[in-house]
Design goal:
Length: about 475
């Protein structure tokens, strides 16, 4: 009953705004501290998770309880050393790191050093493959980095080797004939059928790999130029994972990391912290990352991840700027043409599905969600093209001439308000950044713009 009550507190406090949660914190924290002293490990684990969530949701309001809570958390971290207590120790890491992030660097700094000493000794010890501490520790290190910022740099030499090792894990895959009887009895194995083959994948390894990739992105984002010494290793690890189709989260993390690596490199070069490297290094990195993103965009089966790739590509173009040569711009534009065509084809297929006899309300809801994802893709296309126009100005117009064939139909009344809005925004960027050179597009776009001014949709009218 106590463990379930702790779970109820966890569910209540997750995503709960501080002003709602704070009036109850005195009672909640007091009760959970009592549960931490329980003789039941299940109850202690529930209390740790609930405390972590309460701290995460209340943020700086949790400072009031820090001095009472942290000694208990550190005691569990240091004393729960036997095999049966592995999950309890893992949960204490999670709780400590979330409490630290909530209260901030000034309050947490001294305890953070003690905690990191424990984590370093654990990192150096031999852990079994199924030890839950591994995954929790990866996440705890990343939260400690977020909390401490540049002060975390001295620990990176300890953190990075095992993190890269986890990110480089090979998937444990078994392939059998689809005709063979039965599914795997192993809960840790997920099976998918492709054609006449049944593929079994060990999910625990994939989850560790996904966590590690996500943490690498977090370090690059947080440490900025301080991450420079690890950029090459991380780039060679993550770029191939842009096409890691065994696990969506691995691809998402790899995609998100690309502009962060470029940003780290750019800041390091600008601030003279790039170990003697200059813009030629940034160009070399850009030449590696940007084409890889475009290629991944061609092959990405999930529309949501395709939108994320476009977002990262846009940020990468911003970081690279005029270091991109004409061939690379051409490759990006060709990729965007393919994305627009594929998206239009998917919309057409959905329209045909909507006209089928067996079409029902459940499928209607599904179609609406899928079309919203297509809108997100086109929104990101607009951002990418806007960045290219802002970066290259009139030099981009020959490419814009080619793209007009794809963009002009998007102004039609049969298109969604989002497609029309984004297309108008793209033309607006051309008019703003290319000035007189944009006059030649007025005959094409002006009638559609005037028509859009009378649109029933307020978003389209405003743009």
């Amino acid at each position: 009953v106590q463990a379930h009550a702790a779970s109820a507190i966890l569910n209540f406090s997750e995503n709960c705004r501080p002003e709602i949660l704070t009036p109850y914190l005195d009672v909640i924290v007091g009760k959970l501290l009592l549960l931490l002293q329980s003789g039941s490990q299940m109850v202690q684990e529930g209390a740790l998770t609930a405390l972590a969530s309460a701290a995460d949701s209340s943020q700086e309001h949790f400072q009031k309880y820090y001095d009472a809570v942290m000694p208990y958390l550190k005691a569990i971290l240091m004393n729960a050393t036997d095999k049966s207590s592995r999950m309890l120790r893992a949960k204490s890491m999670e709780c400590i790191s979330l409490v630290g992030m909530a209260v901030g660097k000034q309050k947490f700094r001294d305890d953070a050093k003690q905690v990191m000493e424990v984590l370093m000794s654990l990192q150096g010890s031999h852990m079994e493959a199924d030890d839950p501490i591994t995954s929790y520790m990866l996440q705890a290190w990343a939260r400690l980095c977020k909390c401490l910022g540049q002060e975390f740099l001295p620990y990176m030499s300890v953190v990075m080797p095992p993190l890269l090792q986890s990110a480089q894990l090979k998937p444990d895959v078994s392939i059998t004939s689809a005709g063979e009887d039965g599914e795997s009895d192993d809960d840790g194995v997920e099976t998918i059928t492709l054609g006449d083959k049944r593929i079994g994948i060990r999910t625990s390894l994939l989850e560790e790999k996904a966590t590690a990739c996500s943490m690498l992105c977090c370090y690059a984002d947080e440490l900025k130029e301080g991450f420079f010494p690890w950029i090459d290793q991380v780039a060679t690890t993550l770029v191939p994972l842009l096409k890691f189709y065994f696990h969506d989260e691995v691809r998402k993390a790899a995609v998100s990391a690309m502009p962060e690596l470029l940003r780290s490199a750019k800041l390091a070069v600008e601030k003279g912290q790039a170990q003697g490297r200059d813009n030629s290094y940034l160009k070399q990195l850009s030449d590696y990352i940007v084409p890889a993103l475009v290629e991944a965009m061609h092959k990405e089966p999930e529309t949501q991840i395709c939108a994320s790739i476009l977002e990262s590509l846009n940020e990468s173009i911003q970081m690279s700027g005029t270091l991109l040569d004409e061939g690379q711009v051409r490759y990006i534009v060709e990729g965007i043409k393919e994305v627009i065509t594929a998206s239009s084809n998917r919309r057409t297929e959905r329209t045909e599905r909507a006209n089928a006899e067996d079409f029902d309300s459940e499928e209607d809801e599904l179609l609406r969600e899928e079309n919203e994802q297509e809108d997100e893709i086109f929104d990101q296309v607009g951002d990418c093209l806007g960045t290219l126009v802002k970066t290259f100005k009139t030099y981009f117009l020959p490419f814009f001439d080619e793209l007009s064939v794809y963009l002009t139909p998007m102004l039609g009344k049969d298109k969604t308000s989002e497609e029309r809005r984004v297309t108008i925004c793209i033309f607006d960027d051309v008019a703003e950044h290319c000035r007189e050179a944009a006059v030649r597009y007025y005959d094409t776009y002006l009638p559609s713009l005037l028509e859009a001014c009378a649109s029933e949709n307020p978003d389209v009218r405003q743009v």
